[in-house]
Amino acid sequence: MSIRRALISCLVxxxxxxxxxxxxxxxxxxxxxxxxxxLQSRAAVATAPTQAPVPAPAASVSSVAPVxxxxxxxxxxxxxxxxxxxxxxxxxxxxxxxxxPSVDMFGFxxxxxxxxxxxxxxxxxxxxxxxxxxxxxxxxxxxxxxVLRDGQTLDAKLVGTDPFADIAVLKVDAKVPGVATFGNxxxxxxxxxxxxxxxxxxxxxxxxxxGVVSATGxxxxxxQGYQMEDMIQTDAAINHGNSGGPLIDVTGQVIGINTLxxxxxxxxxxQAEGLGFAISSNTARxxxxxxxxxxxxxxxxxxxxxxxxxxDIAQYNDLPVQWGIYVRSVGSGTPADKAGLRPxxxxxxIGDTPLDATHPYLNTLLxxxxxxxxxLTVRRGNKTLTLKVVLAERPRSP
Length: 398
What we know:
By secondary structure, the protein is α+β, with helices and mostly antiparallel strands. The protein has 4 domains: 2-68, no CATH class; 86-102 and 112-171, Thrombin, subunit H (Beta Barrel); 185-294, Thrombin, subunit H (Beta Barrel); 300-393, Pdz3 Domain (Roll). 22% of the residues lie in helices and 35% in strands. The strands form 5 sheets. The chain has a 6-stranded antiparallel β-barrel. Strand 10 and strand 11 form a beta hairpin. The longest helix has 37 residues, at 2-38. The N and C termini lie far apart (111 Å).
């Protein structure tokens, strides 16, 4: 009887061991399945439960559904194809800045000049050699060059800029390796996959980062009296040097021009990540077309020196309005002068649009065209006046 009991005990132990081994196999399969699913795109199937199921008979192992990698393959293939399509048209922009007087450690001039350079990115938009980038990338330039993806360096000339849209157009007199095409940024949806290509820090040329459209129609305060409007927000990594590079969709169309990243608001110590912004392609296309055609963008002009009025400023200075602009001076012979605007006047409305937090003075003015007659609502002392002004074309820098 003792031998029989010992044999039965051995069989029980063996059965329990096989059962545990089978459970480990099935459990390991579930873990593998769960990890694989986490690597799938947002369109992939849901991940498996984190707790392994009760061990099943060996025959049921084959019944575990295979991992569906179709969505992941499709997304990856789309990104790879888009990058391959647009990559040759992306360039690094080298801005050799105007020399400045050098100073010693005490701040005294040394009598010598020092040179510096900045860099950004750009995208070729015409087989004639036109390249789109940001205005701030070429600001203060002495000489401009572009570096193609294959490392070839070409001299470039500035065709024109528009600081309000932060757009600049360059031109190279050489055969270009590729030309990007514009997409319709008005059709963008939040959550759509987008790809940023550029040269972060100027060294890592043609770097590719992938993210989604976080939002559209954003407005960003420039701290220069106006807001950049109709911006695309994305969490695709954008760093210094990416400015001017394209933001593309998975079909390989340019739907934005990368321009800035926001780390904080300035009113808090909190730091944010993944807050990148791009100029919408429809804006970039319209502005660059004017620059290529005439060398500049036609903008309206009033002819005043002004200061913004906000509720805090109004309260501190005991002003009669919460929002508007205070006219500090009026240029002789300007549209404002001809309309009867005076120093000390407060403009509170342009056309039908009251000036406020979401309608800054310059943004509101830029919605009109040179030659257009526009009514201004003006507070002068205790009176409210309506003055009609015929806008002129903004003078261009030589």
